Amino acid sequence: MKMKKTLKFMFGGFLSILIALSVSAYVGGAGVYDGYKIAAGNYHSLMVKDDETLWAWGRNEFGQLGNGKNVNSKTPIKVMDDVMAVYAGEVNSFAIKNDGTLWAWGRNEFGQLGDGTKYDRNKPVKVMDRVSSVSASGTVTYIIKSDKTLWACGNNSFKQLGDGTSVNRFKPVKVMEKISYVSAGYNCGFAIKTDSSLWAWGYNANGQLGDGTEINRDSPVKIMSNVLSVTGGIDSNFAITKDGFLWGWGKNTYGQLGDGSTDRKLKPVKIINNIKSIYATAFNSFAVKKDGILLGWGMKNGGLINSTSDIIKKPQKIMEDILYIKAGNIHCLVIKTDGSIWTWGGNNYGQLGDGTNINNFAPFKVIIPT
User: Fold this and answer.
1) Percent of the chain residues topping a pLDDT of 90
2) N- to C-terminal Cα separation, the chain
3) CA distance 318 to 304
4) Lowest mean pLDDT: which of 10-24, 26-40, 143-157, 327-341?
5) Which residues contact 35 (CB under 8 A, 6 or more apart)?
6) For residue range 214-223, what is the model confidence (pLDDT) as tens digits?
7) 3-state secondary structure the chain
8) What strands lie across the sheet with 44-48, from one edge to the other?
9) Which of 365, 360, 306, 310 is nearest to 331 (CA)?
10) pLDDT in tens, 249-294
């Protein structure tokens, strides 16, 4: 798809800010259809081809590419076969194979890989059986098993595992039952039960749980009903209800809630209708409408390619014919309606996969070796 115009802007300053703050990219939920063929960590990308092979590229200092090395790669490299779904945390990666086994690799200092250790892994290690979906932040991983039970492992200093304690877990611990969807936020977690109710727990200093308070929660509390999907970002979080409305709450300094203001919200507020999927990053947010139009808002960076302002307080159109989006700190991956994968944004670690370190703000198709 050709863009009508490509916006050129100064990127280096914002890139420096992102690196200095060590902000993190998060998986936008797990369950239902969530773009399982693509994933983006802080500065690495993953993709499952139609032949069920998994490929990775970008930054690799913690082994998050999974190829047995710790060297960055500017082009896609094959990781494993028979993969059904792929997910990413900040600097780690996860895959569910066709037999339902969960595999993990990358950074593991808090036990977030769930393999019972705190050792980084540069090759996939098996974690659990009978897994249906995953969501991960930088230090926490949430797992839904095929029996609808929710499990969690990793850092628990803000009670973000939801198990009623503040003890780190190096192996997954059971948290809830009857769960259909899960998403990891920044030191907090969100889950949708099979009755479509939304629950949240963990860190809440900016009202990111959406329960109307700023009180941390060591176990899940109910937030709202009739929820189809939920996405955790950096202190700004979203839910899509069954009527197609997008709701947002939490921090809003850069307009990342999309409600036209920069005021934080302690409870969910309506943003826009006819939304199919949502993805939140550090300072901006993306939504795919039911007609395939990709919208973006928040602080301008490599993702908001049509932006003419530093802060976008309401959703603006980015592209058409989009099925799903995943984003890292400064780069984006999308699945188009024809099944092709496209990318754009910052490329300092080769996360665009085009063999260079050159930033590219015009979306282009990802080419995977045969």
Assistant:
1) 82
2) 23
3) 7
4) 10-24
5) 28, 277, 323, 324, 325, 326, 335
6) 999 999 999 9
7) CCCCCCCCCCCHHHHHHHHHHCCCCCCCCECCCCCCCEEECCCEEEEECCCCCEEEEECCCCCCCCCCCCCCEEEEEEEECCEEEEEECCCEEEEEECCCCEEEEECCCCCCCCCCCCCCEEEEEEEECCEEEEEECCCEEEEEECCCCEEEEECCCCCCCCCCCCCCEEEEEEEECCEEEEEECCCEEEEEECCCCEEEEECCCCCCCCCCCCCCEEEEEEEECCEEEEEECCCEEEEEECCCCEEEEECCCCCCCCCCCCCCEEEEEEEECCEEEEEECCCEEEEEECCCCEEEEEECCCCCCCCCCCEEEEEEEEECCEEEEEECCCEEEEEECCCCEEEEECCCCCCCCCCCCCCEEEEEECCCCC
8) 38-40, 44-48, 54-58, 73-80
9) 360
10) 999 999 999 999 999 999 999 999 999 999 998 788 999 999 999 9
Is pTM beyond 0.85? Reply is yes
Average pLDDT value for the chain: 89
Do 238 and 223 meet the contact criterion of CB atoms below 8 Å apart?
A: no
- The per-residue pLDDT for 284 is 85
Which residues are CB-neighbours of 366 under 8 A, at least 6 positions away? 47, 76, 333, 340, 341, 342, 343, 353
**C-alpha distance from residue 93 to each of 61, 157, 186 (Å):** 13, 22, 17
pLDDT at 5 over 90: no
Give the bridge partners for 212, in sequence order: none
Backbone angles phi, psi at 271, to 5 degrees: -115, -60
How many residues belong to the chain? 370
Least Cα distance to 295 among 309, 320, 278, 316 occurs for 316
Average pLDDT over residues 6-17: 33
